[in-house]
Specification:
single chain; alpha+beta; Sufe protein. Chain: A; three-stranded antiparallel β-sheet; transmembrane helix; transmembrane
């Protein structure tokens, strides 16, 4: 009886390469399955909330009328600014422009009129500005 013994020599490098390629193949298969499942395809079209354009609303501060201009596209608020701010208004009400810039920055970042923080020094002015922005956005909203 003669037994023929066969010896296989495996190098550690070959085992590591095989394991790495097997893991990569599994990851690739899982990635393809999740990407092409019929129920999970996401068409990321932003929800249309506004009619695109520039909308204005006015308010009065001490017999001086100011206009707030809100620029929106279909899904977000792009910018908010005063459209007819002149030097006399800026001199009479020095806190109006900084309050507007702060409020506009918060609204553009959060895309919401909720939880707007403003300084207690300009609480009344800030509330009037927020109300004017709300009125302008009411005109922009899709019904």
């Amino acid at each position: 009886m003669s037994s023929k013994t066969k010896i296989f020599v495996l190098h550690m490098k070959e085992i590591i390469y095989t394991a790495v390629f097997a893991v990569l193949a599994i990851v690739l298969i899982l990635l393809l399955v999740f990407m092409f499942l019929p129920g999970h395809s996401k068409n990321e079209t932003p929800e249309k909330k506004y009619k695109e354009g520039v909308y204005t609303s006015s308010f009065t501060l001490n017999n001086t009328e100011l206009e707030v201009e809100v620029s929106v596209d279909e899904s977000q608020i792009d910018s908010i600014r005063f459209s007819n701010m002149d030097e006399t208004v800026d001199a009479m009400f020095p806190l109006v422009q900084p309050a507007m810039e702060d409020i506009a920055q918060q609204i553009c970042e959060t895309q919401s009129l909720e939880n707007i923080q403003y300084s207690e020094d300009s609480a009344y002015t800030s509330q009037i500005i927020i109300d004017a922005i709300k009125n302008a956005l009411k005109n922009a909203e899709i019904e």
